[in-house]
Specification:
With 449 residues, the protein is of the alpha/beta class. It is built from 13 helices and 19 strands. Strands 7-6-15-16-17-14-18 form a seven-stranded mixed beta sheet, with helices on both faces. It has a five-stranded parallel beta sheet with strand order 9-2-1-13-19, covered by helices on one side. Helix 1 runs parallel beside helix 13 (432-447), helix 2 crosses helix 13 and helix 5 packs across helix 7. It binds flavin-adenine dinucleotide (FAD). The site of flavin-adenine dinucleotide has 37 residues, from helix 1, helix 9, strand 14, strand 18 and helix 13.
Length: 449
């Protein structure tokens, strides 16, 4: 079969690799002039690559670990010690071990014990997702851990990820986080990072696809998808279309449509809707796609001339601060890997329309400056050597109660047309490991409609 795969993120590349392996003729269309989608890297100079958005793996991420093995890169993944803190009530609180939890000042002592007991119970006893699917995290936490635990810990954490929608997020999202982050040794969490960024994985997948006769077309987006009696007609967008934004209707068509027997789209749901010709997707299916909202990720990467904090990951639980997380990459993968240079990501998840999404890197740093000084009073703008700003409109699907019933199926109502994107990663939080799993499932769904 001739198959078009739309999107060269992890899911699209893995699916194309599977389809090519099974003997199909595969073309991958990618809007961006590079591979990897949300896990894509940038060249930070000096021969180093770094992800646009902070990335690490958990020890439970077995699908991606197996893929590294399969591709003959078993030594690529390295496991390093992580350190996590909470910024609340004007100071940083270490937040990794049960002992840290027991000395977490913002919570009254009894509330700490109650919260600890509930977390252990969830990790050990909560085997099935079902009891957590239709209840909000807020209701569950307040019932089992107490109001203070919601107010001081989980409310701020979920606001960090889901902003104004935090109160609506389903408990199942938090439940899966608890279960997946339970390491063998609770005293110390180890996280994974590939020896030289995520990029070699994309290269290996590309070589596998091209080595089997497939094509991986970057800076060549899908602009329009139609169907006739003989199959699908895909019109590509002209090179440089990414400069027009994310909406495929704004892309200049390039040449005649190409014909395919099957199409697998791994693009965000709103992009999928816009590139499908009117009438191709039934209204009920479109309603389902639209019922899942995305928050945008806004990520400012700073190169600093010195360390910012002692931690890799800082959750910002102070609502006064205009960002939600500080991820100091070089407190995880040491500066010696980057010629002595240091990197800090300032993370945000925002609803579409937020004014912060309109700002450039310097303007955003102006907004963040006072907040950064609140976390580290010594911080000075002169520490910043360089900055990079990235925005991902489909950064985080919002997982609300009853999500499973609204989640779109892989096989769309159009025969031979498959959709696989981050809205279908459930109950786990989306991540590259689950993009690998989804790529496998999507390839199977494409081969057997
Ligand atoms: C801020 C942030 C931090 C993250 N941290 C982690 C982490 O620590 N660990 C982890 O494992 N995961 C992390 N993730 C999540 C992870 O990166 C994603 O879940 C995963 O990469 C999704 O892969 P995907 O292929 O499903 O989607 P995407 O990566 O979104 O791929 C979709 C692709 O489609 C392309 N596309 C869009 N429109 C078109 C078009 N018209 N035609 C052709 N192509 C098009 C896009 O350019 C993109 O390449 C993070 C994500 C973000 C935003």
């Amino acid at each position: 079969m001739r198959v078009a795969v739309l999107g060269a993120g992890v899911c699209g590349l893995v699916a194309a690799h599977r389809l090519a392996e099974a003997g199909h003729e595969v073309d991958v269309y990618e809007r961006w002039p590079g591979l990897g989608g949300q896990a894509a890297t940038i060249d930070i100079g000096g021969g180093h690559l770094l992800e646009r958005y902070y990335h690490h793996l958990f020890t439970t991420d077995r699908h991606i670990a197996a893929l590294y093995e399969e591709l003959g890169m078993p030594d690529e993944l390295e496991w390093r010690r992580s350190s996590v803190a909470f910024f609340a009530h004007g100071r940083l609180w270490p937040f990794v071990t049960p002992r840290d939890l027991l000395s977490f000042g913002p919570l009254p002592p009894l509330a700490r014990v109650r919260m600890g007991a509930a977390v252990v119970a969830l990790q050990r006893l909560g085997r099935s997702a079902e009891p957590y699917e239709d209840v909000t995290a807020r209701a569950w936490i307040e019932r089992w851990m107490g109001r203070a635990a919601w107010r001081e810990v989980w409310g701020p954490l979920l606001r960090g990820k889901f902003g104004a929608r935090a109160e609506d997020v389903a408990m199942v999202w938090l439940w899966s986080k608890f279960r997946l982050r339970r390491g063998a040794d609770a005293k110390e969490e180890r996280l994974g990072y590939p020896r030289s960024s995520w990029e070699p994985l994309f290269g290996a997948l590309r070589r596998s696809i091209e080595g089997r006769g497939g094509r991986v077309l970057i800076d060549r987006p899908a602009a329009r998808l139609a169907r006739d009696g003989d199959g699908f007609l895909l019109t590509a967008g002209a090179p440089g279309s990414f400069r027009a934004g994310h909406d495929p209707r704004a892309f200049e068509p390039a040449g005649e449509p190409e014909r395919y027997d099957r199409v697998l789209a791994t693009v965000p749901s709103d992009v999928f809707e816009r590139l499908a010709e009117p009438g191709l997707l039934p209204d009920a299916f479109l309603e389902r796609l639209r019922s899942i909202e995305y928050f945008a990720a806004l990520c400012l990467l700073l190169e600093l001339d010195r360390p910012f904090s002692p931690y890799y990951w800082t959750n910002v639980a102070d609502p006064e601060l205009p960002f939600v997380g500080l991820i100091e990459h070089t407190n995880f993968v040491g500066p010696e890997h980057y010629g002595g240079r240091r990197f800090l990501y300032v993370a945000n998840y925002l609803e579409h329309g937020s004014e912060l999404l309109q700002l450039g890197a310097d303007e955003l740093l102006d907004r963040y400056d006072a907040g950064l000084r609140k976390v580290n009073p010594d911080f000075d703008r002169s520490w910043v050597r360089a900055s990079w700003l990235h925005r991902e409109p489909a950064g985080q699907p919002i997982v609300t109660a009853g999500y499973r019933r609204r989640m779109p199926p892989l096989r769309t109502p159009v025969e031979g047309l498959v959709l696989a994107n981050t809205t279908q990663v459930y109950p786990e939080d989306r991540g590259t490991n689950y993009a690998v799993r989804l790529g496998d499932e999507a390839a199977r769904a494409t081969m057997t409609p």
